[in-house]
Amino acid sequence: MCKKDEAQKNGIRGAIFDLDGVLLDSMSVWNDLGVRYLKKRGIEPKDGLGQILFSMSMEQGADYLKEQYHLPDTPQEILNGIEQMIQDFYFYEVQPKEGAKELLQFLQKQNVKMITATSSPREHVTKALQRIGLFDYLEQIYTTGEVGESKHSPLIYQLAAESLGTKPEETLVFEDSLYALKTAKKAGFRAIGVYDADGETDQEGVRQTGELYLKRLSEFEQYWTN
After folding, report:
1. Which residues form the signal peptide (predicted)?
2. Which of 2, 7, 30, 141 is the most exposed place for a label (fewest CB within 10 A)?
């Protein structure tokens, strides 16, 4: 069977990938930003710092670190240091999720066009994707920052599908966050839930929402061929 027929058989012509926690093994850096920042400065963080900062914005977190750890820097200088640390992580450290390249190669062979929809800055993820060899599989990068709406809105998925030239019902959306998965599903996309050890706490919700739940990316090929 030719590539085009394989894709048509499954009713799938396009795929939209989240990056953090789906193609990139990057969620851990977001969960322990404060810890990483303090340790880099030779300061031992108190237990539970990650949980305290989790619900705060970056700006609120910078204020908290200054106050609680008596840092001499201004909140803006602390924020700049954290942002530089995040950039360095994406530019030089982050690795692909296990099976990410193989999944992209498989879909490429099935003539499925692929694109990304991410909440991370374009420059960060572009550098990361280029460095780890995933960039060339993807048609384009859409970011919530540039779109102007978070993934609580389906706009980023709709724009990505429009770019691919595919309808929602023939477009897979791979997400590890429950709220984003629900947004994509409600908008008519074929939602695929992806497990990440450092990501979504409600894994049962992810399992129940998507038409497929991937504990490992390598499991997708079996879903396609069945």
Report:
1. none
2. 2
Candidates 138, 31, 148; CA nearest to 89 is 31
**What is the CA 69 to chain-centroid distance, rounded?**
31
- Say if residue 203 is in the same domain as residue 108: yes
Which CATH number covers residue 145?
A: 3.40.50.1000
**pLDDT averages per 10-residue partition of the chain, 226 residues:** 45 96 92 90 92 83 94 94 93 96 96 95 96 97 94 96 97 96 97 93 94 96 87
8-state DSSP, 210: S
**If residue 124 lies in a helix (H) or strand (E), which one and from where to where?**
helix 122-132
CA pair distance 135, 217, nearest whole angstrom:
18
- Give residues with Cβ within 8 angstroms of 191, minimum separation 6: 172, 173, 175, 181, 182, 184, 185, 209, 210, 211
Verify that 52 and 78 share a domain, yes or no. Answer: yes
Task: Assess whether 120 and 211 both reside in one domain.
Answer: yes
The H or E element containing residue 192 is strand 190-194
Which of 50, 72, 93 lies at the terminal end of a domain, its last residue?
93
Give the C-alpha separation, 222 to 210, whole Å: 16
Record the pTM. 0.88
Same domain, 82 and 192: no
Cα–Cα dist 2/33, whole Å: 47
The verdict on 221 and 141 lying in the same domain is yes
Question: Do 47 and 72 sit in the same domain of this protein?
Answer: yes
CA distances from 32 to 27, 37, 41, 79, 82 (A): 9, 9, 14, 14, 11
